[in-house]
Automatic annotation (TrEMBL):
Residues 1-84 form the VOC domain. Residues 1-29 are annotated as: Disordered. SUPFAM superfamilies: Glyoxalase/Bleomycin resistance protein/Dihydroxybiphenyl dioxygenase (SSF54593). This is Catechol 2,3-dioxygenase-like lactoylglutathione lyase family enzyme. PROSITE patterns: VOC. Gene3D superfamilies: 2,3-Dihydroxybiphenyl 1,2-Dioxygenase, domain 1 (3.10.180.10). It comes from Paeniglutamicibacter sulfureus.
């Protein structure tokens, strides 16, 4: 889990991502930067996360390479779950059959 911006330990000491930068700027979640996790069954993962109360930032988005879902981690950072399409996973294109 990532440290929460402004987070402190039990003594009030900021740690990790909770520390200010040298110019005084504090880290903040949001924006479009994110990391992506590959999943085999996006629908099942979405249902599991919704049941657990995880805030989703999008519905399932379908594109040429597969399907994705954007959600927030406990600190509000953007995370992408990605399920490649069968052609994307095989490394072929629709015009090129799998070997």
């Amino acid at each position: 889990m990532l440290s929460a911006p402004g987070g402190t330990d039990e003594h009030g000491v900021p740690g990790g991502a909770g520390q200010a930068m040298p110019d005084g700027a504090m880290p903040a979640p949001g924006g479009w930067n994110r990391f992506s996790l590959l999943v085999e069954d996006l629908t099942a993962e979405m249902e599991r996360l919704v049941a657990a109360g995880v805030p989703l930032r999008s519905n399932v988005i379908t594109g040429a390479g597969g399907r994705q879902l954007l959600l927030e981690d406990p600190s509000g950072n953007l995370v992408e779950l990605f399920e490649p399409s069968s052609t994307a996973a095989s490394g072929t294109t629709p015009e090129q059959p799998a070997p």
